[in-house]
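Re: the 259-residue chain
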Amino acid sequence: MSRRVPVVFFGHGSPTNVLEDNEATRCWQRIAADVGDVRAILCISAHWYTRGTAVTAMATPRTIHDFGRSLPAALFDCQYPAPGSPQLAERLQALLAPVEVAADHQWGLDHGTWSVLSRAWPAADVPVVQLSIDATRPDRWHYELGQSLKPLRDEGVLVCGSGNIVHNLGVMEWNEQAEPYDWATEFNEFIKDCIASGDIDRLLTYPELGSAAQLAIPSPDHFLPLLYVLGARQLSDEVSFAADFVQYKSLSMTSIVLG
C-alpha cells in the first residue's frame, strides 16, 4: 500500500457494547471508515496479559469469551471468524528482535479485540493478529516496543491498542447518567493533554498524580495498550479524540486516532 495507515487506541469498555448501538460503537465504525482498507490488523489487547511476549501465529484464531456468566447469554454466541496471519506473526518476531516473541497457537482473539472489531470491521475479512503485553516490564519498555511497530504502518497494517485510559471496575456504577468521579476526569484530561502536546515523558510521570492515578489505574493492563499506540506514532501524525467521555463514573471510553 502506498499510504501510511493511522494508529488507533480504542476505549473498549464493557463487552456488552458489542450488543448495542451507542456512541462508542458508532465511533468505532467511523474510525474504521476513516482508516479505510488495510492489509491486516495488529491488536494489543488489555486482556492478553502475560509473562513474556507472544504473538498469535495461527491461521484461524478462535473467538475467546473471556468474561463471566453474569453477562448476557447473547455475548457467548458472538463469533468473530477473522483469519489470522502467520506471515504477520513472523514479521513481528523479526521487528521486535532482540525481544523474544513466542509464536502462540492457543490464545486467539479475546473480547478486547473482537468486541471492537466486530463493530468496526463486521465482515471479519481482514486478518487479525494479537500481541501480548508482558506484565513484568515497566511502562517505558512498552512504549519503546511500540516504537518498533512503526514500519508496519507503511506496510498496510493497522496497529491498534484496546483498553481504557481510566479503568476501575471496583468503584463503577451501572448508571449511564452518573457523573464521573473528579479523579477520573482529572486523569483522563491529563493523559489527553500529554498526547495532544506529544509529551511522552510527562505522560510517563502519571504516578505523580497520586490518588487520581492509583484510582484510575488500579492495574496497568488496560492502560498499557495505549503506550504501544503512542510508541507507533509519527511526528507528523495529527491527533483526534472520539467517544471522549467517562462512563459508569470510572470507565473512560476515549478513543484516539493518530495519523
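The chain has a mean pLDDT of 96.
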